[in-house]
Amino acid sequence: MSSEVHRAFAGALTRHAPPTAASAVTTLLLLVWIGAAVVAQDPTKTAGVHKRFEYKLSFRGPHLVQKDGTIPFWEHHGHAIASDESVRITPSLKSKKGSIWSKVPNIHRYWVVEIVFRITGRGRVGADGLAFWYTEKKGEEGMVFGSNDMWKGLGVFFDSFDNDGHRNNPYIMAMVNNGTLAYDHEADGSSQQIGGCQRDFRNRPFPVRVKIEYYQNSLTIFFHSGLTHDPDDYELCMRAEGVDLKPDGFFGVSAATGGLADDHDVLSFSTHSLVPIAEKPYLKEGIPDDERLKFEHEFDDYRGKLEKAKADYRKEHPNEKEIITDEDEDRLYEAQDVKELRMIFDGQNEIHRLVKGLLFKLDEVVGRQERELSMLTLINQGTAGGIQASQGLSGNQPVGAFQRHEVDSVLSSQKDISANVRDLKAQLTDLQSRFSGGSPSGHGDSSEIVKRLKDVKTQFDGVQIDVKTLLSKSQANPANCPTVSNGCVTPFVLFTFLFGQFACIIGYLMFRSSRDAAAKKLY
């Protein structure tokens, strides 16, 4: 919206306050006029411009890559990776550069380009950024967002890192170069831009969209923040007049990473040529009425034949399930982000099921350990009198009997294990509540938890076997318990040793967890 429109709107509101019936009507008419002026600024929404899709200057998924790994009419260089759904210009690794350029030049004088992309990273700050190019020659690998400096043409930069320290990044800016200017990295090109806006385009819930229009020497950039799924939810970023861009240039996209790294993915690149109808009056006429009626009749005929063929097939194969049903049609054509959310939801359900199973098994283990602990306590109380009575009667230790300190050690170990199991049960209950709440945690952490729980269960099984062995020994020799000599280890020393051992295990686990977390962060 121009400055004249702003001043007219502000003046109208000032002149007509306080509101009356006449002022309300005037304000309504003024708003309608402003809306018409805003729509007129977008040349693709006016009736005087013919818009045509240029497939040789565009790419989009699915089935983006051919069998030989190339993209039709495009070529990618550096660390760019082309897949079936998108092109990853640079992966989230340090000091990587990549680019993709059109093979054929743009022969149209006016054009509009719409780019759908994602920039994602683990940290709060990313680097370095993404760049859109329209240059006289194809770019080469360089220092300006993965492409060469001193280009000749237009560059639109999506700068993620704040080099000048003004805290105004992420930032979108446009720069026109005649081949003699060197990009100012230290100042983020702030003195060389023809316009820009501060917008956040990292880690958005939906893909980010940008529309770059060049029409009648006017450059306009519209930005879609990626906060909604509406593809038409654009807002004006910048507009510059007097921009001279010649035809026969090449389109391209490049990206680079530095000390920090982000994934730079381009999902689609759509180019449309803009032709004023005044220059080509035959475009205004459109399809004649007789041709249009003919095409509509053919379309209705083919659709009727298709429905009839479907009905005949259902009659001939009544027991065969259809490959595509009306219920599955939405899932068949669902977007990539919906597929990712569905996979996350299914993964969380599987984790929830596994955690419930582990909690059930832990309850069984705790019950068994408590029963064995009560049995050992009864044995301890029942054999205390026999131990005192046997003092002085036999100086030799029977073969196959177990020592008194072994029983005390097993009892203390059972108490420690029961306490640890209760703590572990509380932690698993907390994890289960988090999973049931729908927080999309990572699958790697859940698999590590499951692995540790399996190790704990294995240790519990070993302790259970040892306890059963001791019980069998005690039943075989109920009255042959030895006396406790003065040289045995005191309970204080035993508990101190067990507590120190448990503290060492906990410290080692915490050290390994912190080391793994630091390694993931550095990666």
Task: Describe the protein.
There is one protein chain. By secondary structure, this protein is of the alpha+beta class. 43% of the residues lie in helices and 20% in strands. It has helices at 3-15, 21-41, 282-285, 289-316, 326-332, 336-382, 384-389, 404-436, 443-476, 491-522; strands at 49-53, 59-60, 74-78, 81-82, 87-90, 97-102, 110-120, 129-135, 152-159, 171-178, 195-197, 208-215, 218-224, 235-241, 250-256, 263-276. The strands form two sheets. Strands 1, 2, 4, 5, 7, 12, 13, 14 and 16 form a nine-stranded antiparallel β-sheet that branches. A hairpin with a 4-residue loop joins β4 and β5 (87-90). Mean pLDDT is 77; it is low at 1-22, 28-40, 387-402 and 438-444.
Roughly what percent helix?
40-55%
Poorly predicted regions: 1-22, 28-40, 387-402, 438-444
Q: Quaternary state, please? A: single chain
Order of helices and strands: HHEEEEEEEEEEEEEEEEHHHHHHHH
Number of helices: 10
- Strand content is 15-25%
Shape verdict? elongated
Distance between the termini: 46 Å
* Rg, Cα atoms, Å: 37 Å
Secondary structure blueprint with pairings:
Blueprint: H1 3-15, H2 21-41, E1 49-53, E2 59-60, E3 74-78, E4 81-82, E5 87-90, E6 97-102, E7 110-120, E8 129-135, E9 152-159, E10 171-178, E11 195-197, E12 208-215, E13 218-224, E14 235-241, E15 250-256, E16 263-276, H3 282-285, H4 289-316, H5 326-332, H6 336-382, H7 384-389, H8 404-436, H9 443-476, H10 491-522
Antiparallel strand pairs: 1-16, 2-16, 3-6, 4-5, 5-16, 6-15, 7-12, 7-16, 8-9, 8-15, 9-10, 10-11, 12-13, 13-14
Helix pairs in contact: 1-2, 6-8, 6-9, 8-10
